[in-house]
Design a protein that fits this description.
CATH class of the largest domain in chain B: Mainly Alpha
Distance between the termini of chain A: 39 Å
Number of helices of chain B: 23
Largest sheet of chain B: 5 strands, mixed
Number of domains of chain B: 3
Helix content of chain B: 55-70%
Number of helices of chain A: 9
Oligomer: heterodimer
Strand content of chain B: 5-15%
CATH architecture of the largest domain in chain B: Orthogonal Bundle
CATH architecture of chain A: 3-Layer(aba) Sandwich
Shape of chain B: elongated
Helix content of chain A: 25-40%
Bound molecules: adenosine-5'-triphosphate, magnesium ion
Chain lengths: ~240, ~500
């Protein structure tokens, strides 16, 4: 699905992503994890072609992602930005339908697509006509997810979809998301900094530290055969936090 | 959606450019913004009308420069001028001596000089009789021994070759407290005692009214200011009857008569048109029909003129300001340049901008001075740009990056992002800019009267000149009301244009 080859990117002279090699398999869920500021969101933006790498190449299904090719390729990727990024001037329905409408879909087709999407997530019918400011955080995340799914993309890129939610909503949505992934059998790249969440979703976990990939593999591999003391420290810190 | 935008654009463009009133093709008389000039202008108009030629009188067009320029460019065909002004100001530095030389010099520019009306309206220095008596001041030389006196002169007098700087030199005057002000305001300052002396014209009605002593020009500094007409050489061919009729006024008005006419207009508040008509009837035996204008007629006329100025300048400003604002937000370099230029325009004084614009407007075949003045519309347009450009730019730059990124990541092309996401998100700021621009525009439009563009500024100008508060209010009140109305309209607009989702968030 994705192939990143020796990708680096720096901002104002500081390297934010450094010499990353990463292959993301189709139909699997890959989780990017690491401490705050380690470059997870930046890596995601590189995959979307929202920013260009300083060096190295990003390929999406064999095609190189460049500023020129990115706009077309992006229609085949569904992205949910950290925080959801719903447009406050549009209702939930308008948010989800925005791109389809721009592409000239007919009304019936849009309504049908939204109806089938709505079945995936628990969304109260009256939410559709509300503006984001009047929609709860959990519901906003669901709407943002559905907006990303609207054009039936090949891959879903989710940046901390459960980040700002309270624990109960979070647990519910976690289950729901997993169900969606399982039903759709899509490739998913998900960013989080919570190890239990990563373990819950991931086929492959990619642990990052200061712009570099420290280790990637299943949770088991990371837990049982860490390639770096940082891996153990990261897992332990999260466990003791969860226990305490 | 795209079709709708295009249609809306077309409608606005048409609304901005189509003039509601068609320009009237008639000879035009101009006059400066003081009562005597207006009366002389009316005299010419009345004489022409008595001879069966209807003319337009563009009254109170400001100062010499505006009038003479307008005459040269054909914006007006004739206006009253003074010999001293021609020699010292219009032809300043050319060393023209005597009437003959002056005549042939102006003919080179296609301007004919009539014979004088018969009175001199020169400069004199005036003080309140009482104060002058107390200080024992009779001549200008006497001023030299009172260096603490406060002087207030018109801005024109401050700058003129024969004005304050020369007077100061000739008489060795040491007064330091000398300020430039509007001539009509200077009278009030003099009456209230905030200034001790000002320059007056020897036929000013104010001399009698305020009890002013004119100081003797004992060193013969001030040149003669014989009133006469300057008219375009081609007018004699186009309108021979009109020229004959107006030239019948040559050598017909004495100094006393002129002061009486000024007093009738200024002190008795008889409209200049009537003052002129009765003079023409008395002296030339020509009856001129007067259409009487009620206050209501005037209000309607001024409202239409004002709305015309605001409508055309503001809509043009919107059409140019929005794209400029968008460009400024998108391109950093261009943005800095655009904002700087638009900002600098804002600092140009209104009158200077108006004067500078008259000539290019005339060169383009547009109306420079008078109703529907393209120069006034252009000046208002320029003044309206800043709030529109700046707010559009700031509104767009202020959009949270995550929303901009979401729109980009969705796969919307740049034009669609702008239309569907960025402009709606910035709509509140943009509308606030439009509102500011419109309200400022309504206020600034009163300045259009300085070059005869009409509108609410006209009664304000006349009111200041005649010291008539009712007349000032006749312009100031409707102008304020219009500004409030515009504000209310924009508040209504907010509800229509700003997306509901954004209005909710501001209510919390
Ligand atoms: N456009 C940018 N310009 C300058 N610096 C940037 C930019 N984007 C990111 N950075 C910097 O790069 C570093 C990594 O940012 P990034 O958002 O990728 O981290 P992250 O792993 O997603 O962190 P978090 O878990 O807090 O979201 C940060 O220090 C950030 O300040
Ligand atoms: Mg991040």
């Amino acid at each position: 699905m994705y192939e990143l080859c020796d990708v680096s990117r720096s901002f104002d002279g500081t390297a934010v992503v450094e010499r990353v090699d990463l292959a993301i398999e189709a139909g699997k869920t890959t989780v990017l994890i690491g401490p705050s500021g380690c470059g997870k969101s930046t890596l995601l933006r590189l995959m979307l072609g929202l920013i260009a790498p300083g060096s190295g190449t990003v390929k999406f299904e064999g095609a190189q992602v460049t500023p020129l090719s990115a706009p077309a390729l992006r229609r085949r990727m569904g992205y949910v930005i950290q925080g959801g990024g719903l447009f406050p001037h549009l209702t939930a329905r308008e948010n989800v339908a925005l791109l389809a409408r721009h592409l000239g879909w007919e009304r019936e087709r849009i309504d049908a697509r939204i109806e089938s999407l709505a079945r995936l997530a628990q969304i109260a019918p009256d939410v559709w006509e509300r503006y984001p400011i009047r929609i709860s955080g959990g519901q906003q995340q669901r709407i943002a997810l559905l907006r990303a799914l609207m054009l039936d993309p090949d891959v879903l890129l989710l940046d901390e979809p459960l980040g700002a939610l309270d624990p109960i909503v979070r647990a519910d949505l976690q289950e729901e998301l997993k169900e969606v992934f399982d039903t759709l059998r899509k490739s998913v790249v998900l960013v989080t900094h919570d190890m239990s969440e990563a373990a819950f979703f991931a086929d492959t976990i990619v642990l990052m530290k200061r712009g570099r990939i420290v280790q990637s593999g299943t949770f088991r591999e990371l837990d049982e055969s860490p390639e770096d003391p940082f891996v153990t420290r990261f897992i332990r810190a999260q466990r003791s936090f969860a226990a305490g | 959606m795209r079709k709708r935008t295009a249609a809306l654009l077309a409608v606005v463009l048409v609304a901005a450019l189509v003039p509601l009133s068609s320009p009237v093709d008639a000879p035009r008389v101009g006059s400066k913004k003081f009562t005597e000039s207006v009366i002389l202008g009316e005299l010419v108009a009345a004489a022409a009308s008595g001879a069966g030629v209807e003319v337009l009188h563009a009254r109170e067009l400001g100062g010499t420069r505006i009038l003479f320029q307008a005459l040269l460019s054909g914006e007006i065909d004739v206006y009253p001028e003074y010999t001293g002004t021609i020699a010292k100001e219009i032809l300043a530095g050319e060393g023209i001596e005597g009437e003959g030389e002056l005549r042939s010099r102006l003919l080179e520019d296609g301007v004919i000089v009539s014979r004088p009306f018969g009175f001199n309206n020169g400069y004199a220095i005036g003080m309140l009789e009482e104060r002058a008596q107390k200080l024992g001041i009779r001549t200008v030389s006497d001023l030299a021994s009172h260096p603490d006196l406060v002087f207030g002169f018109s801005n024109e007098f401050m700058d003129r070759e024969d004005g304050w700087p020369a007077l100061q030199r000739v008489y060795g005057l040491a007064q330091r407290d000398v300020s430039g002000m509007d001539h009509d305001l200077a009278y009030r300052q003099l009456a209230s005692g905030s200034i001790d002396a000002m320059e007056v014209y020897t036929t000013d009605a104010g001399i009698r009214y305020h009890g002013i002593r004119t100081l003797e020009d004992d060193r013969g500094h001030f040149p003669l200011y014989q009133a006469l007409l300057l008219y375009r050489a081609d007018l004699a061919e186009r309108e021979p009857q009109m020229v004959a009729a107006m030239l019948a006024l040559e050598e017909r008005i004495s100094e006393e008569e002129m002061m009486a006419l000024n007093a009738a207009a200024q002190l008795e508040r008889i409209p200049e048109r009537e003052v002129a008509a009765s003079f023409i009837a008395r002296e030339l035996g020509v009856e001129v029909e007067l259409e009487t204008q009620t206050r209501w007629d005037r209000l309607c006329k001024h409202t239409l003129e004002h709305l015309e100025l605001v409508r055309r300048s503001f809509l043009l400003a919107v059409l140019c300001g929005l794209p400029l604002g968008i460009l400024a937000a998108k391109k950093r370099r261009a943005g800095q340049l655009i904002l700087a230029v638009v900002g600098v325009i804002q600092t140009i004084p209104a009158l200077a901008l108006l004067v500078v614009l008259i000539e290019p407007a005339a060169a383009l075949g547009l109306t420079g001075v008078g109703t529907g003045s393209a120069a006034a519309i252009c000046a208002l347009f320029l003044y309206s740009l800043l709030p529109i450009v700046r707010n559009t730019c700031e509104g767009l730059r202020g959009i949270p990056p995550e929303l901009r990124e979401s729109a980009e990541a969705l796969g919307l092309p740049p034009a669609a992002r702008l239309r569907l996401v960025e402009l709606p998100l910035a709509s509140r700021t943009i509308l606030a800019g439009l509102k500011t621009a419109a309200i400022l525009n309504v206020g600034f439009a009163t300045l259009g009267a300085l070059i005869g563009a009409g509108g609410y500024g006209q009664p304000i100008l006349t009111g200041i000149r005649l010291d008539d508060y009712a007349l000032i209010l006749e312009g100031a009140l409707p102008s304020a009301a219009l500004a409030l109305l515009v504000q209310a309209l924009f508040e209504l607009c907010d509800r229509i244009v700003i997306p509901a989702g954004l209005r909710l968030s501001s209510q919390g």
